[in-house]
Amino acid sequence: GIVNDLGTDTKGGGKSSAAADKVVEEIRAKGGKAVANYDSVEDGEKLIQTALDAFGRIGVYYFKCGLLSVNVSFLLFCISDLIQRIHLRGSFLVTRAAWNHMKNQKFGRIIMTASAAGIYGNFGQANYSAAKLGMLGLANTLAIEGRKYNVHCNTIAPVAGSRLTETVMPPDLVASLKPEYVAPLVLWLCHEQCQENGGLFEVGAGWIGKLRWERSQGQIVRKKNKSMTPEAVRDQWDKICDFTDATKPATVQESLQSMVSVLSRMESEDQVGANSTAAAASPASSMAVGQKLPPTTFSFTHTQCILYALGVGMSTKDPDHLRFLYEGSPDFSCLPTFGVIPSQAAMMEGGLSSVPGLNIDFTQVLHGEQYLELYKPLPTSGKLTSEATIADVLDKGSGAVILLDVHTYSGGELVCYNQFSVFVVGAGGFGGKRTSEKAKASVPPPKRAPDAVVIDSTTRDQAALYRLSGDWNPLHIDPSFAAMGGFKAPILHGLCSFGFAARHVLKQFANNDPSRFKAIKVRFVKPVMPGQSLQTEMWKEGNRIHIQCKVKETDAVVLAGAYVDLHGASEASPENLTQGGGLQSELVFAEIGRRIKDLGSELVKKVNAVFGWEITKDGKTAAQWTIDLKNGSGSLHKGPYSGKADVTFTVSDEDFMEVVQGKVNPQKAFFSGKLKVRGNIMLSQKLEVILKDYAKL
C-alpha cells in the first residue's frame, strides 16, 4: 500500500519523511508491500499516481489525516483555513483523484476518518469539528454515488492514541487506546466481501458501535391558508421533541416524506389540525382488525370509463380499443381494472385515519400490492358504494403491512372486490404475526421463456392524464414534490402500470373481451417515469396468465409476482356474453352456451369437433366465437380458438340469423357466398343439428 505522511507536527509546521518511512518499514518487516509518499493531501493526484505507478491500480484508501489547533473557545477563535484544507479539502482532492479509477474497475473501498468532535461537538474545537463533520457529509454522498459501481464508502470515528491525540489525552489513556484496536475494523470495511456502505462507526479499545440518526414523530403546527406562528410552535414543543416511537430516516427521501405528506394532505383537506398526525408508529392490531371504514360512494358516467381507458394507454390507433373509448360503439365496455377507481376512495380520503387502534404515520405509507376481482362486468355508468374493512395487520419487523378489503356494490349486488396491501415503514416490531391466510398471495412466474411479450410506450403526459381518474397525489405531477421525494421528475402511478399490464393480457389472451376477466394480483416493485416503455411478459398456465412488467429502457422490474385469472371458456356466462353486444347473434350463442353447460359431455361424444365462427357486420368482423365440443365437457367462449379449429364459418350477423331461424337453407347460403367455410366442411352437418334443436329464440 501507499503510506502518506507529510511529516508535520500537530500544528502543521515542519516537514519530515520519518513518520511515513517508519510505517513502510513496519509493513515490509511483516511481509507486506508498501511505498512512502510525502506529498500534501492537497496534491491528491500525485498521491494516487504514486499508487498507480507502484501497484498498477487503486482499490482501497483509508483517509486519516489532520491537524489539531490549539484548543481555544469559539469567541477567541476564527476558523483556520489550514484545518479545513487538510481535513475536508484534502479528503475531497484525494477522492477525486481515485474516483474514476475505482469506477472503471467496478471496485473501490473508501474509509473516511471523522471524529467524535465532529459528531457531537467539543469545546474549543469548532474548526476541527466543522471539518470532521464535513467529511461525514462527503462520505455519505460518495456512498450513494458509488453504489452502482461497487465503490463503497464508510466513515469511522476512532478513539486511538496517536501523534494528534497524545497532546490532549493523559499518557496512560493514550497507551490503552492502541491503533491496533482500530485497524481490524478498517481492514474489514476494505474487504471485497464487506457490503457495508454509508455506515458511521465509533471504534476504540476493542469496542465498535454503529451510529444512525433518530427523529421524533414530529407535529404539524399550521392550518391550511393560515400563517404558521411561533405560538403554535411553542404550544406543540413537547410533542415536537417527544422521541417516543421515534423514526430512523436513512436517506434524503425518507427524511422528506414527512413534508411531502403534509403538503399533499394540505392540498386535499380543508384543514390539517395540530393533532392530525398519527404519532404512534406501531399499529395496535388486536383493536384494528375487523374495523370498518366509513362507506364511500362513487357516481360516474361513460366519461370516467373513457378517461380511465386513455389514462392506461388505450388509443384510437388500435381499432380493438374503440369499444373502450367510444360510447357509441355497439359493444362499448368498461375496462375491468377500472374497478380500483371507486374503491380507492377509502385510501385517498383518509379513511384509515378514522380506525380506532390503527395509528399510522402517513409519511411512511407505501402501496405494496393490489388484488382486484370482478364478479360481473363493470357497468359503464351508475352509482357504486364501497365498504372497506381492515382484514389484518402483519408485523414484518421493519414495518407493518395493513390488508384493506374493499367490497364494491351496485345497488345491493356485489360488483368487485379489492385488497389493498399497504406497507407502513418503521411500524413493525409490535409482536404481531408475519403472515395471514387472508392475504392474496403473489406468485412467481414459471421458469421458462414467456409465451408472449407486449411492449407499449407511455407518453410524457401519462401521469397527468391518469391522475384525472382520481389519484391527485402531487408526486405524479409537480416536479417540486417529486424532488422532495427523491425523484428527478414526477413518477407514474403504480396503478397506471397495473392497468397497462392488465389490458395487455386482455388483448393477448381474451380478445379484449372484458367478460373473460376474473382477477388480477400485482406486487409493486419500482416506479416508472412517464415516457418510458412498459414491457409485459406473459406465461399462460391454464386460465392463469402470469405476468412480469419491466421498463424496457432499463430492464428494471416494476410489477412482480403478478398474474391475471381469466374465466375459462366453459365459464363464459350468457349474462356476461350479452353485455353491450349489439349483435342479434349474441343471443343465439348465449343459448348455445346454456345448452353446452347442461349437456356438454353428451354433445362432445356426438360431435367431437371444434367450431369457429366469425360474425361480420357492414363487411367487417364484429365478433368471433369458439364452440369446443371436442375437449373436456365442452365449452363456448367469445374469441378465436387458441389452437386450430376443425372448421370455421364466416357469415354476416343478418345471414346467420336467417340460417338459424330456418329462413335460409345453409347449403344455399354456402353456394351463394353468404356463408364461407374453412376446414372440414362435412362437420357442418353436426353443427346444423345443434343450431336447429337448441338455439330457440
Automatic annotation (TrEMBL):
Protein name as it appears in the record: Hydroxysteroid (17-beta) dehydrogenase 4
Gene: HSD17B4
InterPro entries documented for this protein: HotDog_dom_sf, MaoC-like_dom, MFE-2_N, NAD(P)-bd_dom_sf, Peroxisomal_Beta-Oxidation, Sc_DH/Rdtase_CS, SCP2_sterol-bd_dom, SCP2_sterol-bd_dom_sf
UniProt domain SCP2: residue ranges: 592-692
Keyword Lipid metabolism: yes
Organism field: Amphiprion ocellaris
Example GO molecular function: 3-hydroxyacyl-CoA dehydratase activity
Family per similarity comment: Belongs to the short-chain dehydrogenases/reductases (SDR) family.
Entry keyword set: Fatty acid metabolism, Lipid metabolism, Lyase, Oxidoreductase, Peroxisome
